[in-house]
Write a structure and sequence with these properties.
Elements lengths: L7 E4 L4 H12 L4 E5 L7 H12 L3 E4 L5 H8 L4 E4 L9 H11 L4 E3 L19 H14 L5 E4 L2 E2 L19 E5 L5 E5 L1 H11 L8 E4 L6 E3 H12 L4 E5 L1 H10 L6 H10 L9 H4 L2 E2 H4 L8 H6 L1 H7 L5
GO molecular function, one term: oxidoreductase activity
Keywords: NADP, Oxidoreductase
Pfam families: NmrA
């Protein structure tokens, strides 16, 4: 391994994004460590991931976000910390921040965000503190004077895209489609492995220190009207379009119990309020990943349609 590469600790390596982050870190020749809970080793799927990463060179450290002493020992071995735990564990990063402050050796902390910018969300009255918890973590990091990079990659292609943004579905419709609002608000989709490649490039980049990095590549920014148009072109058929007004969607969000309504909240945020694209990256003081790292080849949405997602969609039938 190259000695000038920062040593990276990744928390959450058995998750979908955490696994890709660990692979990208190892592929970039960073000495890479993963903090792993004991329970992960008895989970068949997670233990297979850990075995794969270990074979590629990942150093495993047993521990959890609840144990500050173990965290402290792990932090003393690294330069960079990337947290990729689930949204349910966002507040558990408070102990990690305390340990980072005590360790005094961390050059950069990337907290668990990897979605829309929590400071720019316009759905805080609906999201059961989903975004405010992430904003709270940001404020603690800044108050403690910990060097950071926040990464906002918006939507993963594996989440809403396979259903064509149809709540409760796993496959796209072939007869009629619901379109939220007027269908013109644009959202951003990214593959997890592409996000990981961009993230790992930020860790030793002075330009991204104490900055927000947004993933907003031109080939991955689409409205619902555009997504439906692409799908209609693929299947050679026009769908019946049912437009769901903002008021109708808000009523459905309020009538659906939490947490089942969170998918609707995310759709409202992205495709009605336009939370991912209503502001310009430049005016916000942030940086855009594909402009920073033009050498990274990312999967465009059109390529996603014609590859693994399209294959999934093409094999489905209306039930």
């Amino acid at each position: 391994m190259e000695s000038n590469k920062s040593k990276i600790l990744i928390i959450g390596v058995t998750g979908r994004l955490g696994f890709e982050l660990a692979k990208a870190s190892l592929n970039s020749s960073h000495p890479t460590f993963g903090l792993v809970r004991d329970s992960a080793f008895s989970d068949t799927h997670k233990s297979q991931k850990l075995h794969t990463l270990s074979e590629e060179g990942l150093t495993l450290i047993k521990g959890s976000l609840q144990d500050e002493d173990i965290l402290l020992e792990a932090l003393k071995q690294v330069d960079i910390v990337i947290c990729a735990v689930s949204s349910k564990q966002v507040h558990e990063q408070k102990i990690l921040i305390s340990a980072i402050k005590r360790a005094g050796c961390i050059k950069r902390f990337l907290p668990s965000e990897f979605g829309a910018d929590p400071d720019r969300s316009q759905v805080s009255n609906l999201d059961h503190n989903f975004y405010s918890r992430k904003s709270e973590i940001r404020r603690i990091i800044e108050a403690e004077g910990i060097p950071y990079t926040y990464v906002c990659c918006n939507l993963f292609t594996s989440v809403l895209l396979p259903s064509l943004v149809q709540p409760g579905r796993k496959a796209p419709p072939r007869d009629e489609v619901s379109i939220f609002g007027d269908g013109t608000a644009k959202a951003v989709f990214m593959n997890e492995n592409d996000v990981a490649a961009f993230v790992i490039n930020t860790v030793d980049d002075a330009r991204t220190l104490n900055k927000v990095v947004y993933m907003r590549p031109r080939g991955n920014v689409y409205s619902m009207n555009e997504l439906v148009g692409i799908w209609e072109g693929k299947i050679g058929k026009m769908l019946k379009k049912i437009y769901i007004t903002e008021d109708e969607l808000l009523k459905k969000i309020r009538d659906t119990p939490y947490p089942e309504n969170m998918e609707l909240v995310f759709i409202y945020s992205a495709f009605v309020k336009g939370d991912q694209t209503y502001f310009s990256v430049e005016s916000s003081g942030g940086l855009e990943g594909t402009q920073l790292y033009p050498q990274i080849t990312y999967t465009t949405l059109q390529r996603s349609y014609s590859s693994e997602i399209m294959q999934c969609w093409a094999s489905t039938t209306e039930h």
